[in-house]
Design brief:
heterodimer; A: mainly alpha; B: alpha+beta; 2 domains; 8-stranded antiparallel beta sheet; 5-stranded antiparallel beta sheet; 13 helices; 15 strands; elongated
Chain lengths: 178, 383
């Protein structure tokens, strides 16, 4: 904890050195995982900040489980965000439909990121564990790191990953209900 | 040995060295397992393509600064919250504030209007060079609905978000913002501010964009407007903890503004910010204004005036003044025409002006009269 000079008028908490080291070492990886889920760098950085704040509040910086905890929290927080994003988008579409009888211009529907959005929606429809597994693996984590983050034996990762990949492809091929 | 399980073959694809010698030997001699690896590889490539995202480059050092700034705000009101409480005590914050914010959003949309026909080349379309007041009353429900509808016209994305950071000194604030340091000599301020602590904060420039979406009128859709905000610096003279505490405990229905001001103590904020700039890749100013005005015929006259006042004349930034709470009059600061604003209690006041030469917006505001704010601003050095 740092001390604030008296004339600043407020006690300011600052991260101690061990936490700073952890932050500097893990921040990029945490953003990468969140970005894999969200496909939005800015939102991924927001998630990383949220996750580090949460960790800072609850855990010692030198905890051995810190990297695994951060990765798991990043993927869960990011998944929660795409799930609420999906709800928000659905609400907005409903609102728009209430406001006008005119169907949307097809040109407007074909947005540049449509495919990416479709994949994120499919990912959000998977259960948390397979979705997390995919996000972590495709962010470059090793089987050992994934096992530590998700509390799963390393020997099980291959099987679970295979199932998760098949589930995702199935979701992607599924016709999205109107 | 029986065939390798799917999970093992899957791992073979990612981490071939993790297999045991027996598993490797089996795989090398088993056509069926090799074929399964081909299938798994195809699936994996498909998933990898689906989950592909553009690579991100992050700046952990800068992120840590932002983190520490957030951390500093935890448990205590943030600098912004304390500043807000200090400059505008809670009892005076009526339902007007939310409409005001919504108004700013709508104004932001208007501010993004472009002066060119649809074209792909990005050009600067708006940079305020003068402030002109527009009197507004309490927004009507219809105005509120319209403002909320306007807000849905655009998808906002921040390339870099505005992040106000506390700074130990004026020099540190200047380093964050890149602007000249706001050195405040409290001995040269009005007597009530002498010997008061000074808190500095700054933000680097931020860039965001608004892309008109399917909710916007057809003519605007697809146009992207990019807004550059800041950099900025602020120096607050006064005890922010005391101010925040007063703001927290104030009960607008029971505590008089005078009582709150007395609890807050003397507070003065001095701010400088590069004029915001807006660029666009399409549509014209009049198109956007027309679209806003036509979207709801029941808009109140003050809101219509606010919309019409944008960039007319060129560079005009309309400043909404709630008639039931404040009044405004022209004032000259450092030889530049600005606007002085005083609240109706006489307790709070400020002045805002724009230096066209340096494209900088300045503001001085606090618990002092509008005239005193002007005099104080004129006595400050901004070099």
């Amino acid at each position: 904890m740092g001390e604030e000079p008296a004339d600043r008028g407020a006690a300011v908490r600052t991260a101690p050195d061990s936490f700073e080291s952890l932050f500097l070492a893990e921040y990029g990886k945490v953003v990468a995982v969140a970005n894999r889920v969200l496909a939005d760098r800015q939102e991924a950085e927001d998630v990383a900040q949220e996750v580090f704040l949460d960790f800072h509040r609850k855990h010692p910086a030198d905890a051995g489980y810190a990297p695994a905890w951060l990765q798991r929290a990043a993927v869960h927080t990011a998944l929660n965000r795409i799930r609420s994003r999906k709800r928000r988008e659905r609400r907005e579409v409903n609102d728009a439909n209430l406001r006008t009888d005119t169907p949307p211009d097809p040109q407007d529907v074909l947005v540049v990121n449509e495919e990416r959005r479709r994949v994120r929606q499919a990912l959000s429809r998977l259960s948390t564990k397979p979705a997390s597994l995919l996000a972590l693996r495709y962010s470059g984590l090793s089987y050992v790191e994934i096992g530590a983050a998700l509390g799963v034996g390393t020997n099980q990762i291959g099987t679970l990953l295979r199932r998760a990949e098949q589930s995702l492809l199935k979701e992607l091929n599924r016709v999205t209900p109107a | 040995m029986s065939h390798l399980p799917d999970g093992t073959v899957r791992r073979l694809y990612d981490e071939p060295l993790a297999l045991s010698e027996a598993e490797r030997t089996h795989y090398n001699g088993c056509a069926a397992c090799q074929e399964r690896l081909s299938d798994i590889a195809a699936t994996t490539r498909g998933v990898a393509a689906a989950l592909a995202v553009p690579g991100v480059t992050v700046d952990p050092e800068a992120a840590l600064v932002r983190f520490n700034s957030k951390l500093a705000g935890q448990g205590n009101p943030s600098t912004l919250q304390r500043l807000r409480s200090a400059v505008w005590p809670q009892a005076q914050v009526s339902s007007w504030r939310k409409p005001a914010l919504a108004g700013v959003l709508a104004v932001g949309l208007v501010a993004t209007v472009a002066a060119t026909p649809i074209a792909q080349n990005v050009r600067q379309v708006f940079e305020p060079s003068q402030v002109q007041t527009v009197s507004v009353g309490k927004p009507t429900q219809s105005d509120m609905n319209s403002l909320q509808a306007f807000a849905r016209w655009g998808d906002v994305k921040w390339v870099s978000q505005p992040q106000l950071q506390q700074a130990e000194t004026a020099a540190e604030a200047a380093k964050i913002s890149g602007l000249p340091a706001l050195k405040v000599d409290t001995s040269k301020l009005p007597q009530e501010f002498a010997n008061q602590p000074v808190t500095y904060a700054a933000m680097a420039g931020a860039t965001g964009s608004v892309t008109f979406n399917a909710n916007a009128p057809a003519k605007l859709r697809g146009t992207t407007l990019t807004v550059q905000v800041g950099p900025a610096e602020v120096a607050v003279v006064g005890d922010l903890n005391k101010a925040a505490q007063a703001g927290k405990t104030a009960d607008g229905s029971k505590t008089t503004p005078q009582e709150i001001a007395s609890q807050v103590g003397p507070v003065l904020a001095i701010a400088e910010m590069r004029s915001p700039k807006v660029t666009s890749n399409g549509v014209s100013v009049s198109d956007v204004k027309k679209a806003l005005l036509a979207s709801d015929p029941s808009l109140s006259q003050p809101l219509k005036d606010l919309i019409n006042g944008f960039d007319s004349p060129a560079g005009n930034l309309p400043l909404p003044i709630p008639v039931d709470m404040a009044s405004a009059h022209p004032a000259t600061v450092h030889g530049i025409q600005g606007t002085a604003i005083g609240d109706n209690t006489g307790l709070g006041g400020g002045v805002i002006w724009i230096d066209k030469k340096s494209s900088t917006v300045y503001a001085v505001a606090g618990l002092l009269s509008a005239d005193s704010a002007v005099k104080t601003a004129d006595g400050l050095s901004f070099k």
